[in-house]
Amino acid sequence: MQIESISGLLLAGGRGTRMGSVDKGLQPFGGSTMAAHVLERLRPQVANVAINANQNLDAYGAFGVPVWPDDTPGFAGPLAGLETGLRRCTTPYLLTVPCDSPFLPADLAARLLAGLQAADADLALAVTEENGLRQPHPVFCLVKADKAEILSSYLAAGGRRMDGWYPQIKVAEVLFEDAAAFRNINTRDELQALDPARPPRLADVVSCLSAYDPDALPVRDAQKIIRDFVAPVRATEQVALRAALGRVLAADIVSPINVPAHDNSAMDGYALRGEDLLPDAELRLRVIDTVYAGRASSAVAGKGECLRIMTGGVMPAGCDSVVPQEFVKVLADDVIVMAPGTIRPGDNRRLAGEDLKAGSAALMKGKIIRPADLGLLASLGVAEVPVQRRLRVAFFSTGDELRSIGQPLDEGCVYDSNRYTIYGMLQRLGCDIIDMGVVRDDPAALEAALVDACENADAIITSGGVSVGAADYTRQIMARLGDVTFWKIGMRPGRPLAFGRIASGGKSAFLFGLPGNPVAVMVSFYFFAREALLRMMGAEAPLPLLKARSVAAIRKKPGRTEYQRGVLSHGADGMPEVRITGSQGSGILRSMSEANCMVVLHDEQGSVQAGEMVDVLMFEGLV
């Protein structure tokens, strides 16, 4: 509630010594600055606002309010700021708030005024109770403007205590229940911890789990941590309709028109009045005109009359039903005959706005645009579509044993297949892809690759180097570059996984460190990285699991999630059934190529008997 009798003053004249002698009011907070955040909460409560500051006056002036330095020289304290504000105040009351308390109550002015008036006081200050102790907050105070001379006399006599002049005036204390609303931010650590715009830390997300063990993490817990930690990329762009295929919609598309625009016929036939239908007798109607799609008729059907109408033709005035042409007999002299009970009133008429009403959402933000969506948007006359910026993903493989295609295979070496598998999966997601090749097992090379990827991509995917092997330097380097955790997940294949966020050069990227075995790479990507990348794109597309009957028994122990390659087909009864492809070793990529699905055996499941239903993930159609 805005109170016209109160002016507001933001106290920003302090030194900020505990924060490194910086100007606290101008420190980044909540997507802007602390001062801007406080002003946003103060402005709606008072008639006008000013800022008391002794440095960076131009920066504070950019907020569009008066900026007043202290009148009392050599004393950069809140009492000097209060004196300055009282001398310039043009309303009966002045409310002061500090620049380092961005959570001030929305009803601060109203409650302080009520307390001051109830006690017939000169000044009201906020008080809270913490751990049974009463805590005054004298910088959150409402003062009568005519008390300026009393304060100036106190300061001129050398007084400096915030409450030192209280014996000369009448003071009221107003109790507030929310102590956190008066919290002041004094250090950089507090600033970062309390900033609402600060990205969450992995420790914050992990703390929500009741029993977190990085060496035995269930699949669903790892998925939840990743889901809660990643954030969508905010940048958007407008693209031509055809270029929107496969992109993520950045805003709701509101239909500008009714679809269809008019009541129209659902088929070729005859438009008539429902009230003319006879329940027990043959009906004869005279045809007075023909209605074609795109060409409306001005004819109005009267009793005993109808119009020939084509599919999509606008319903003529007075008509509300259509009888299909194959259900009538056409006589001479443009007369049709139909048997009783052929149709009911309102049959075969499509209503205006039946598909979409003007003003309703045709497509919702976050939808991945498919061919049918292009058609829908075209039917609305939409030529350009707001979409999320394409996600930039960098990826590389690690290992001295890896060779790229075209290089000779030395003894003990293998061709790098993981990069091609990852490329294909990222391509299906519609990402902008940065292939960084193979990075050797060398600390300097790995760190350089991660830094380069971080500065040029939104997300990084690595394969190999996240286990506990002697040459796996990736663990130490990832941890040094950012907020990264290493998990042993209760799953098969693909137990080791690294996840987090690294930063370099003022930029950051989410990191997914996948295992090195080829099948484990695919499993880890589909069940951990895929959903996270889609979430970064602004889309929600959970994996579409289907139910199928297991052809044979599958051995499994409860306590871990297993992903087995399978072939889905239809049994003799037409029901979907699945069989596994044989050996399920994590290095046997051929079995993944032969499979058309993956059988998902959940953490709590035990062995599966032949004929039991299991969850199946189809490979075809995955974005």
Characteristic key phrases:
MobA-like_NTP_Trfase; 6-stranded mixed β-sheet; 7-stranded mixed β-sheet; 14 helices; alpha/beta; Molybdopterin biosynthesis moeA protein, domain 3; 22% helix; Molybdopterin biosynthesis moea protein, domain 2; flat; Spore Coat Polysaccharide Biosynthesis Protein SpsA, Chain A; 623 residues; nucleotide-binding
Short synopsis of the structure:
By secondary structure, this protein is of the alpha/beta class. It has a 7-stranded mixed β-sheet. Strands 16-13-15-14-18-17 form a 6-stranded mixed β-sheet, with no helix packed on it. A 6-stranded mixed β-sheet has the order 25-22-26-30-29-27. The relative contact order is 0.08.
Sheet with the most strands: spatial strand order: 5-4-1-6-8-7-9
Tally of separate domains: 5
Major sheet characteristics: 7 strands, mixed
How does CATH name the architecture of the largest domain?
Alpha-Beta Complex
Low-confidence stretches: none
Structural class: alpha/beta
End-to-end C-alpha gap: 50 Å
Report the sheet-strand fraction: 25-35%
Instruction: Tally the helices.
Output: 14
Query: What gross morphology would you assign?
Result: flat
Subcellular location: Cytoplasm
Binding site for GTP: 11-13, 24, 52, 70, 100
Organism: Massilia norwichensis
Family: Belongs to the MoeA family. Belongs to the MobA family.
